Amino acid sequence: MKKIVLMLLILIAGSVNAQVYNPVKWTTSVVKISESEYELIAKAAIEKGWHLYSQSVPEDGPLPTKFSFDGKGEYLKKGNTKEEEGHVVNDPIYGMKIKYFENKTIFKQRIKIKDKAPKQINANVEFMACDDTKCLPPKQVELLFKMK
What we know:
The chain is mostly beta strands. It is built from one helix and eleven strands. The chain has one helix at residues 2-17; strands at residues 24-32, 37-46, 51-53, 66-70, 75-83, 87-91, 96-102, 104-113, 120-127, 129-130, 139-146. A hairpin with a 4-residue loop joins strand 6 and strand 7 (96-102). The model is unreliable at 1-17 (pLDDT under 50).
């Protein structure tokens, strides 16, 4: 009986101490540019003390932020996903100059609809968040862009 109680206490203590970090929250919106062109906007809200890396980072650096769009042939991407200016700093974890974003940032992707606009566009963003002492494992989040 003592062993069972001890095991339960260890399990409870372990679950209480385990912290799940989720320092980046994503929201989406869509802006109609013309009858056939739209801009898909992904906003990242980043908790204080954390940062999100750019889509372009040096080799042997952290995982860059990557967007993938599931078009199903309904639209064409116009160019690459654009990002804001961000900060270029000498990253203490990787020991190299890297561009990253703090607090918030916006990514934009232009698309051209082939026939009729779909009700929504699905995409994924893969990213890695770090603070000054550690990086979290890469995370993938599904993004839904609701067309108006």
